[in-house]
Amino acid sequence: MKPCLLVDKSAGEVFRKKLHQLSLLDNHYKIRRINDKIAFPLKAPPTQELLAELKKLGDFVLSSMEFEELRRKPRDLIEALGDVLTPFELSLLPRSFDVVGDIAIVELPDELLHVKEKVGKALLTIYDNVKAVYMKYGKVNGAYRIRPLEHIAGEAKTETVHKEYGCFFKLDVMKVYFSPRLSWEHWRIASQVKKGEVVVDMFAGVGPFSIMIAKKVRGVMIYAIDINPDAIKYLKENIKLNSVENSVIPMLGDAKDVIETQLRGVADRVIMNLPSDSIKFVQVACKALKENGGIIHYYAFASEDKTFKDVEEEFIVEVSRSGRSVKNILFKRIVRAVAPRTWQVVLDAFIA
């Protein structure tokens, strides 16, 4: 039984606001409606001073009765698991994670692997839009850039549709590379492209750069290359899904081979989102540019051992080896942290 205030329905809102103002209303329980009366659950019986305040609003009856407890969703993992994990374990919980469509992908330290299922179930409880939870258990590697994932909660689904700035991307998180953390980069590059440009997206994946450009800018042509057959499969589906069949041409193969045999001297702009190995492709990217030059968006990793300045100097040297030169660095920034003291960075450079 809980103490409560019983008032006429017509005066309910006035009393509710006052009880909230006086910190008397217990929001952990559901307010009851009984015929023409409303019963407000109280944290504790009001003092004489508080009763005097309430009497100014009109008639009421102080009583007690049973109330249904409200089950409020936890706001974060710490709140959801506060009674389950130790203080040390709570301190190790991730503060952020990726959501791709309706699939959450979380990274856990070794100290939390024994409670991975509990973490997964907690994420399902907190976020209504999440239907499946996977845990990273290795690095992105190989030519296809696929990260090993382990299912820890929810539906055992791997295919989803991710929405980003009005674009839809169908993909399988176990078969292709996709990072929702690059959404602003996708938009930033698309915002620079002008009508009539030809773009070569050297490592297109399922099309986040290519499709966003095609949706945002009319009269462009984008050659979207990827070596992963599954990525090209989903790219073709996404081209149709976003109605950009006339602007995006999917091309399966190694970017070096495709450019050397089919795309020499065609591009106004080249996108190089392969930060682990992009330096190996700089010379062929230069070959894709038109004779009068163009822009390269170059992504790489920087660290304490290899600084952002080192990345820039290495890029400039590699461009010169192609017989061209960096006329101007138009823009550069740290895109995101990818590991302790390691960052993904981007250079926008005009190549003459």
Automatic annotation (TrEMBL):
<dbReference type="GO" id="GO:0002939">
    <property type="term" value="P:tRNA N1-guanine methylation"/>
</dbReference>
<keyword id="KW-0949">S-adenosyl-L-methionine</keyword>
<keyword id="KW-0489">Methyltransferase</keyword>
<dbReference type="InterPro" id="IPR030382">
    <property type="entry name" value="MeTrfase_TRM5/TYW2"/>
</dbReference>
<feature type="domain" description="SAM-dependent methyltransferase TRM5/TYW2-type">
    <location>
        <begin position="97"/>
        <end position="352"/>
    </location>
</feature>
<comment type="function">
    <text>Specifically methylates the N1 position of guanosine-37 in various tRNAs.</text>
</comment>
<keyword id="KW-0819">tRNA processing</keyword>
<dbReference type="InterPro" id="IPR029063">
    <property type="entry name" value="SAM-dependent_MTases_sf"/>
</dbReference>
<dbReference type="Pfam" id="PF25133">
    <property type="entry name" value="TYW2_N_2"/>
</dbReference>
<dbReference type="InterPro" id="IPR056744">
    <property type="entry name" value="TRM5/TYW2-like_N"/>
</dbReference>
<dbReference type="InterPro" id="IPR040601">
    <property type="entry name" value="Trm5a/b_N"/>
</dbReference>
<dbReference type="InterPro" id="IPR056743">
    <property type="entry name" value="TRM5-TYW2-like_MTfase"/>
</dbReference>
<keyword id="KW-0808">Transferase</keyword>
<dbReference type="GO" id="GO:0005737">
    <property type="term" value="C:cytoplasm"/>
</dbReference>
<dbReference type="Pfam" id="PF02475">
    <property type="entry name" value="TRM5-TYW2_MTfase"/>
</dbReference>
<dbReference type="Pfam" id="PF18093">
    <property type="entry name" value="Trm5_N"/>
</dbReference>
<keyword id="KW-0963">Cytoplasm</keyword>
<dbReference type="GO" id="GO:0052906">
    <property type="term" value="F:tRNA (guanine(37)-N1)-methyltransferase activity"/>
</dbReference>
<protein>
    <recommendedName>
        <fullName>tRNA (guanine(37)-N(1))-methyltransferase Trm5b</fullName>
        <ecNumber>2.1.1.228</ecNumber>
    </recommendedName>
</protein>
